[in-house]
Amino acid sequence: MNSYLHKRKGNTSYLVLAITCGIVMSILALATAQTIQGAFNGLKVTQIALQAQQYASAKVNLIKAAGFDKFTEEPKKSIPESPFYQEVSEIKESTSNSVKKKAAAVNIYLQDENFPRYSLPVILYDPVDGIGNCQTLSGMTNLTFKSTTTAKSISLFATSNWNKPTGTWSSTNTVTVSVNNVVIGSLSMTASIEKGGSKGHYWGYQPSVSGAKTFACNVKQGDTITVVSSGGSLFRHCALQITLNS
To answer: Are 141 and 230 in contact (CB under 8 A)?
Structure first.
């Protein structure tokens, strides 16, 4: 009788232990699933924000290219082949020192949401008697855009990057600036490396060279500005920033 009770008590203990382990494993599995889901949701939100930012930047560039006179309010409408919607908020106009100004914001929405996922302000000025504002754009390697203002000079800042050379090497990238297909100036950047050591020993890295230059010119609103990189041996890309100075 005592042996039977002892055996039954032992079986009950194992059963309790098994049930407890099952509960603990279930809790751990649920916590792990929630952690993974939280990380996935965070990644998805970040991706949505980045996409919205890209759409907003693209729309602002289109507005600047169209110019001051065509800068108008736009109602919320869908962006083709995407779940996003865009709008240009109410235009606020003002005048200071005979220069007219329009300000608004480009708002990007996800599907039918009421609050934008990303908003980007945009300000344009209308040049009067040669008085305007500076226009600054940036891009990679090559850049083409239309002037939204008048300008008496163009300032160029560029950083050229090359891939890793495998020995003694030299290369030049020349950036050429044109207005309506007429060259107004160029900026050359040269990088060179002398291989050191022996028996093939070599410290590889990606060379980078920056340069800046300002060109005198007469730019009218609506003129086409073109910036082209010539490239060269092992050329990778060139970061460009160009400013039209009134």
So the answer is: no
